Amino acid sequence: MGTTQLERVPEPKYWHLRTVLSEALDSEFEVGEVLPNERDLAARFGVARATLRQALEQLELEGRLQRRRGVGTTVAPPRVGVAVDTPEHAWPGTADDAWQPADCVLAAPSAAVADALETGRDEPVHTVRRSRVSHGQPVAAELLYVPSSSVPGLPAIDAPSGAARARAVLRELQRGTLEGRESAVELGSAGTDEAKELDRLPGAPVLVVTTRYLAEGRTAALSVATYRADTCRLTFGDSGDVHIHHGPETRAS
């Protein structure tokens, strides 16, 4: 694709350049590929570098590009859809669950988590840490809090920690009868731990999805999942799944 004449376009130059760049991303670049430097891009499209930066910033806001430390500007993977209003009755860790367990510890949670679980402030709960990856890049991190009363058959000596212990907690949790789940979504900013797991700077925008799993009239588990806001979108519908959209033209469900 040759140099585009932008002077005669009535809309702002950076916005038209954003459209041209978006088309180039679809036809010429692969996910994760590093874009040429700003000087070369500005020369190719015949624009000032300030105009180019505005277009790149807009595409970054839309989730088409990512600026990675020590790498440069890369083509972002398709956004992960975060489902809202999910009626599906399924425990975390089922066969079609895209989350990968990383660790599990038994410790007293924060006061807010203890109140949500309606457990004692000093009562230890199983904290399962899981991650979500798309195209080799982290897009979400989750802390799943499971009271000991929800996994009464969990062996105490088998796999005391790590991913194996996390999988054991999830398997035991699935033995119960799930009555429903409730989710809430809010915009937040990444703390130090979340930023490290998501390969973002502290304070980066994130979507925080809190889900209560209900059984026997109580909260049997509590999930706090943190999604990168630049790689995720909210989806509405009856499917109850979290979908990965495999192309820029795929609509959210």
Structural notes for this entry:
This protein is an alpha+beta fold and 253 residues long. Helices cover 25% and strands 31% of the residues. It is built from six helices and ten strands. It has helices spanning 13-28, 38-45, 49-61, 111-117, 162-173, 192-198; strands spanning 65-68, 72-75, 80-84, 100-107, 125-134, 137-147, 180-189, 205-215, 218-228, 232-236. A six-stranded antiparallel β-sheet has the order 4-5-6-9-8-7. The chain has a two-stranded antiparallel sheet with strand order 1-2. A hairpin with a 3-residue loop joins strand 1 and strand 2 (72-75). Helix 1 (13-28) crosses helix 3. The longest helix has 16 residues, at 13-28. The radius of gyration is 22 Å and the shape is elongated.
Distance from N terminus to C terminus (CA atoms, Å) equals 33 Å
Percent helix among the residues? 10-25%
Radius of gyration equals 22 Å
What percent of residues are in strands?
25-35%
DSSP helical segment count: 6
Broad structural category: alpha+beta
Gross geometry: elongated
- What are the segments in which pLDDT stays under 50 over at least 5 consecutive residues? 239-253
Mean pLDDT: 82
Strand order of the largest sheet: 4-5-6-9-8-7
The biggest sheet amounts to: 6 strands, antiparallel
Oligomer: single chain
How many beta-strand runs?
Answer: 10
Order of H and E elements:
HHHEEEEHEEHEHEEE
Name some characteristics of this structure.
single chain; 253 residues; alpha+beta; 6-stranded antiparallel β-sheet; two-stranded antiparallel ribbon; 6 helices; 31% strand; disordered C terminus
